[in-house]
UniProtKB/TrEMBL annotation:
Coiled coil: none annotated. Its EC number is 2.1.2.1. InterPro entries: PyrdxlP-dep_Trfase (IPR015424), PyrdxlP-dep_Trfase_major (IPR015421), PyrdxlP-dep_Trfase_small (IPR015422), Ser_HO-MeTrfase (IPR001085), Ser_HO-MeTrfase-like (IPR049943), Ser_HO-MeTrfase_PLP_BS (IPR019798), SHMT-like_dom (IPR039429). This is Serine hydroxymethyltransferase. GO terms for cellular component: cytosol. Homodimer. SUPFAM superfamilies: PLP-dependent transferases. It comes from Microvenator marinus. It catalyses: (6R)-5,10-methylene-5,6,7,8-tetrahydrofolate + glycine + H2O = (6S)-5,6,7,8-tetrahydrofolate + L-serine. Keywords: Amino-acid biosynthesis, Cytoplasm, Methyltransferase, One-carbon metabolism, Pyridoxal phosphate, Transferase. The record marks H225 as: Plays an important role in substrate specificity.
Length: 410
């Protein structure tokens, strides 16, 4: 960072402030993590300077000897970590990966069926303000009103009624294990492609602490920066028979030159994900989420589905008589950062919903363990209850700051 400081002190100061913020707060945003120094260095490497339209061995510009090596390395590592037949590492992020996957498999206007956004699905799974809801004819399944879990019989019923060409599974705010085999049998029954978007859980899948969709789904898409702890990027894994269509959809259909610096950083992240300690990391992510769930339940909070199987929890604040927005703002003042989130069948508006989504991927990277979760939830509870009391929030913030000093960021 010395060069940034010297050339552009204004930008340096903003980056430094963000560094301090990340160091001195407890980050519970379920989609965030701390990438390692190795991943960050590869991401900031000289590959930033290289254009590489095309694929290894078939590029449009010269000077690709090392670009080809790094892209092949990332692909081989992804194949090995996920057991995939074919991998494309060029998507710029998760949303482009989904755009490219749809482009490869569908014609404009084709029917898709995905989890509705208000029930935990992602915008790109057919929501009406997103390209996926505009370019395709989208319908949605949700969760069961009683169990708040995916009801596979209901998914089957909707699939039989709608007859989608593509069935999408995967979510942004679903705290339970996803049964990919059940989705596959529904997709087969209606003759649909099965696509799994594992953006949130790809690190858990890589480590074997969540079942993998790779053997069953036709195509799997993911971001690489959430539980996988890599650079901000995207990835598509598929069966060999879709390889050509996927590759053509990524380039030249939807993207130009790949971000080779991100591919290099992904190669590093995949190396890290293949090490034995990554399995420990992913298991601790889940153990921390379960410990947090217990700590919330013991303080009288209701959790969507009653708990968690993965890296996230959805806390329903209704019984505490506070909206998600006010709770998240109070938490931030106390130094604990999470996002307000709709809960299934929410009666409040999406911008100020009834819940808060909490994830343990980032704090686990810092070394926080199940025994620390009660302390953190204690602070959250205090912050929510004293949300009008600025000095109480300030005192919690000070305690959080001190606590954070024991957990270095990478
Ligand atoms: N898919 C899912 C399930 C997600 O949760 C997200 C991001 O949160 C994405 C796709 C999109 O990723 P990005 O924001 O990198 O485009």
């Amino acid at each position: 960072m010395d060069a940034v400081k010297e050339i552009d002190p204004t930008t340096w100061e903003i980056i430094s402030n963000e560094e301090d913020r990340q160091r001195n707060t407890i980050r519970l945003i379920a989609s965030e993590n701390y990438a390692s120094q190795a991943v960050m260095q590869a991401s900031g490497s000289v590959f930033t300077n290289k254009y590489a339209e095309g694929y290894a061995g078939k590029r449009y510009y010269l000077g690709q000897e090392f670009v080809d090596q790094i892209e092949r390395l990332a692909i081989e590592r992804a194949k090995s970590v996920f057991g995939a037949e074919h991998v494309n590492v060029q998507p710029y992020s998760g949303s482009p990966a989904n755009l490219e996957m749809y482009y490869a498999l569908l014609e404009l206007g084709d029917k898709i069926l995905g989890m509705g956004l208000p029930h935990g699905g992602h915008l790109t799974h057919g929501w009406n303000v997103n390209f996926s809801g505009r370019f395709y004819t989208a319908s949605a399944y949700g969760v069961n009103p009683e169990t708040e879990r995916i009801d596979y019989d209901e998914v089957r019923r909707i699939a039989l009624q709608e007859r989608p060409k593509l069935l999408m599974c995967g979510a942004s705010a679903y705290p339970r294990e996803i049964d990919f085999e059940a989705f596959k049998s529904i997709a087969d029954e209606v003759g649909a492609y099965l696509v799994a978007d594992i953006a949130h859980i790809s690190g858990l899948v890589a480590a074997g602490v969540h079942p993998s969709p790779v053997p069953v789904a036709d195509v799997v898409t993911s971001t690489t920066h959430k539980t996988l702890r890599g650079p901000r990027s995207g990835i598509i894994l598929c069966k060999d028979k879709f390889a050509k269509d996927i590759d053509r959809a990524v380039f030249p259909a939807c993207q130009g030159g790949p971000h080779v610096h991100a591919i290099a950083a992904l190669a590093v992240a995949l190396h890290e994900a293949s090490q034995p300690d990554f399995k420990d990391y992913a298991s601790t992510v889940v153990a921390n989420a379960k410990a947090m769930a217990e700590a919330f339940l013991s303080r009288g909070y209701r959790l969507v589905t009653g708990g968690t199987d993965n890296h996230l929890l959805l806390v329903d604040l209704t019984s505490k008589d506070v909206g998600g927005k006010a709770a998240a703002v109070a938490m931030e003042k106390a130094g604990i950062v999470a996002n307000a989130n709709s809960i299934p069948f929410d009666t409040r508006k999406p911008f100020d919903p009834s819940g808060v989504r909490i994830g343990t991927a980032a704090i686990t990277t810092r070394g926080m363990k199940p025994e620390h979760m009660d302390t953190i939830v204690g602070w959250i509870d205090k912050a929510v209850l004293s949300r009008e009391d600025e000095s109480a929030l300030g005192r919690i913030n000070q305690e959080v700051r001190e606590f954070c000093q024991s957990f270095p960021v990478p």
